[in-house]
Structure formats: structure tokens, C-alpha cells
Amino acid sequence: MTKAEIVAKIAKETGLDKETVLTVVEQFMLKVKDSLVDGQPVFLRGFGSFIIKERATKTARNIKEERSIIIPAHNIPAFKPAKSFMGRVSGDLDIQDDED
What we know:
Elements: H1 3-14, H2 18-37, E1 42-44, E2 48-55, E3 58-62, E4 67-71, E5 74-81, H3 83-90
Antiparallel strand pairs: 1-2, 2-5, 3-4
Helix pairs in contact: 1-2
């Protein structure tokens, strides 16, 4: 599903115009990005958490040039779904919707 499809569905279900919904969706994504850039995770109860994962320095192989390269330590954004979210995706209905 694309952002445009999400906006269209929300607009249809809420009765809001697409421009307003698009603004809200884009602002939500911007705030999540800004928070992660500042090193702050975002917790959405019942949905999941946007977090920063730290990757350690590692050695890799450049096969074309037949040499080793060092990949420095770095941070990456990640999403960790809530247990209830995972339960719904996997079809496990025993997991409550209000868990993280």
C-alpha cells in the first residue's frame, strides 16, 4: 500500500478531504523521523515502536576487487511491532490488542 492509497482510505473513512489527511500523514512521518534523528524512540501502544538499532563495525568482502573493506559502526532506523500487532498478522487471536 502506498502513501496515496493510505491517504485515500483515511479520507474516505473519516470524511476529511485528502489534502488535510495528506498533511497529517506527512507531519506524522516527519515527527517520527525527527525523533529518531534526535535519538528518541517513538512508542505507539498496540502498534509498535520506531527505534534506532546500532550496527557494530564489521569486515566485508569486495568480490570484484578481491579485497576486504571495513564497514564502520552506524545506526539504522527500525520498527518493532507490538505483540498484539504480531498476533493479528500471524493469526494468533489470543494476544490482546492493548499490549506493547
